[in-house]
Design goal:
Elements: E1 5-13, H1 22-44, H2 49-62, E2 82-88, E3 93-100, H3 106-116, E4 121-123, H4 124-133, H5 141-144, H6 147-159, E5 207-212, E6 218-224, E7 245-247, E8 251-257, H7 259-265, H8 267-278, H9 282-295, E9 300-306, E10 311-312, E11 319-325, E12 331-336
Parallel strand pairs: 3-4
Antiparallel strand pairs: 1-5, 1-11, 2-3, 2-6, 5-6, 7-8, 8-9, 9-10, 11-12
The structure holds aspartic acid (ASP).
Length: about 325
């Protein structure tokens, strides 16, 4: 039986039809469809789920509207520090990179960490040195510069907020200024500050892919620029196995949303644990993990696939850029709730 399936996301958050133009929506859908096709072609030819998720995420990293690779958001200091991870469920192996700079495709570097080192996570200058040693493609600052990301940074600085890339018109109530902090969050809300309004609907989002190949092997990958105006070397869930990314023989999961909460709830691993220890279906396990996230005030979503090729894409935000191809080859792309 061919169980091939792939799912991708381009970030979850306040995605409102009222903020979207038909032209922009078409662009987003095109970016998602291209990535899905690239991953699906690999699966159809009998390729591995690992190759499929890496290739799909590379395509999303190259697409400037998403907050990963080329379209990464800016840190407080006007830099782009990217996090990425990849996990091979068949071998229970993973590779991650955190706050790397000028790497064209951080997910590719994460794969090299998995394949060429005895470690799981490399960070900062060390990860960049490792990239240099392995002749990983880099790109100059100009390649990563996008006007709308720069404007977002100015807005976030003016509002004194560390800003989730998915904040909508009212801002994100779970991010904000530096005075009072919610438990486990890096800052508190100031959503009534008029300057905190995000006018630009292009402000989405972290990217990820999960896949099941013809043999039933699973893999997941996630890549992000993190949060606008982040500082102090902040690293989110995307670089953390079990939080933003996870794959074993039960399922493969990639998350998007306010990373601190995904770390606190170990959301990606939570899905696998619910299947393994509670005997739940993929759908029920993923729904349960999102309910848990909601209980602790976390916002976002996830995509997951199991070894039978079932796919689920739950989220608790207004929308999530997402798409799937399963047996039959039909492309399904959705944005809103
Ligand atoms: N989870 C990412 C982070 O917190 C952000 C996102 O998904 O947009 O870094």
């Amino acid at each position: 039986m061919n169980r091939s399936a792939i799912a991708i996301h381009g970030g979850a958050g306040t995605i409102l039809r009222t903020q979207m133009t038909p032209v922009l929506e078409k662009e987003y859908r095109g970016g998602l469809e291209t990535a899905l096709r690239i991953g699906w072609n690999i699966l159809e030819k009998g390729g591995s789920s690992l190759d499929a998720v890496e290739a799909a995420v590379v395509s999303l990293e190259d697409f400037p509207l998403f907050n990963a690779g080329r379209g990464s958001v800016f840190t407080h200091d006007g830099e782009q520090e990217m996090d990425a991870s990849i996990m091979d469920g068949r071998r229970l192996k993973a590779g991650c990179v955190a706050f790397v700079k000028n790497i064209k495709n951080p997910v590719h570097l994460a794969r090299l960490v998995m394949e060429r080192t005895e470690h799981v996570l490399l960070a900062g200058d060390g990860a960049n040195q490792f990239a240099e040693q392995h002749h990983v493609e880099t790109a100059p600052d100009e390649y990563f510069f996008t006007e709308h990301r720069w404007l977002q940074l100015q807005e976030a600085i003016a509002a004194g907020r560390v800003q989730l890339d998915h904040a909508g018109e009212d801002g994100d109530k779970r991010t904000g200024g530096e005075e009072e902090s919610e438990p486990g969050s890096i800052a508190s809300a100031s959503s009534d500050n008029p300057k905190s309004k995000i006018q630009n609907p292009k402000s989405l989002g972290t990217v990820g892919a999960v896949a099941c190949d013809q043999s039933g092997s699973l893999a997941a990958a996630t890549s992000t620029g993190g949060m606008t105006n982040k500082k102090f070397g902040r690293v989110g869930d995307t670089a953390i196995i079990g939080a933003g990314t996870y794959a074993d023989d039960t399922c493969a999961v990639s998350c998007t949303g306010h990373g601190e909460y995904f770390m606190l709830a170990s959301t990606a691993h939570d899905v696998a644990a619910r299947i393994k220890y509670k005997g739940l279906s993929l759908e029920d396990a993923a729904r349960g993990a999102i309910e848990r996230l909601t209980q602790i005030n976390g916002e976002g979503g996830l995509i997951a696939v199991d070894s039978f090729g079932n796919v689920t894409l739950p989220f608790n935000s207004d929308g999530m850029y997402r798409g799937t191809i399963q047996q039959g080859g039909q492309i399904i792309v959705s944005i809103y709730r």
